[in-house]
Specification:
- The protein has 61 residues and is mostly helical.
Amino acid sequence: MTTTTPKTKIPSMPDSVIAEVRRTKVKLLERYNYDLDAMARDARSRQSQSGHEVVDRSTVA
């Protein structure tokens, strides 16, 4: 069951979901020693090796 907050009318997430997202975020950050550049390099590397089409929107005006 989700509830809405009166101020925003956005459904709130159950505490267990939020806690799991936060635990996952910390584990991921720890894996890369809190180095976001290293995390991004690894993500780009895995993305290029995946064989899936990659859409580059950096050149869109």
